[in-house]
Amino acid sequence: MSKIDGDRAFLPLNIAIITVSDTRTFENDKSGDTLAARIESAGHKVYERLILKDEAEDIAAQLKVWADNPDVDVVITTGGTGVTGRDVTPEAFRMVIEKEIPGFGEVFRWISYQKIKTSTIQSRAMAGLLNATYMFALPGSSGAVKDAWDDILVHQLDARTHPCNFVELMPRLNEHLK
């Protein structure tokens, strides 16, 4: 069981958000609002927030821009992870990520199964790394965003989480380039 180690310092991260949708705007983007509020409530900073259409090339291009920005630690997308023809977020991720983190999607679907049962198989939530930047693709519902943040990301993006977390690995993510 994960727990907070009181001897470790909290390290706030800069997290960029993309809502992937052909129809959402900032006025009706509940999942993006939910995610941004949770990021800030946890002590992190929302670096930038965008809404992009379901176009794999555009999503991939933005992922690269943020991965090349040393001020961005994490990118989280919401939307476009289903199985319909316009759901292309995992394809965009696969165009650019260097390493996939399969455990994220597996654990997300396990958590989701507890709430929505077999409907979770329609989610292609995933995670990966690009240029030492963590990237997470979440479904577009506010419930899925809550599940992913509250049950996985709030812990893994907190340097105090024991026995291990993604933050403590950040200094070593590009060690293969040395």
Q: Compute the number of strand runs.
A: 8
| Biggest pleated sheet | 6 strands, mixed
Helix content: 25-40%
Overall geometry: globular
Order of strands across the main sheet: 3-2-4-7-6-5
SS content category: alpha/beta
Gyration radius, rounded:
15 Å
Give the number of helices: 5
> Order of helices and strands, N to C?
EEHEHEHEHEEHE
Q: Report the span from N to C terminus.
A: 34 Å
Q: List low-confidence stretches.
A: none
**What average pLDDT do the residues reach?**
96
Proportion of β residues? 15-25%
Can you describe what's shown?
The protein is of the alpha/beta class and 178 residues long. 35% of the residues lie in helices and 21% in strands. The chain has five helices and eight strands. The protein has helices at residues 30-41, 56-67, 89-96, 102-116, 142-156; strands at 3-4, 14-20, 45-52, 74-78, 99-100, 126-130, 133-138, 161-162. The protein has a six-stranded mixed sheet with strand order 3-2-4-7-6-5, sandwiched between helices. α1 (30-41) links the parallel β2 and β3. α1 (30-41) packs parallel to α5 and α4 (102-116) crosses α5 (142-156). The protein starts with a strand and ends in a 16-residue tail after the last strand. The model has no long low-confidence stretch (mean pLDDT 96).
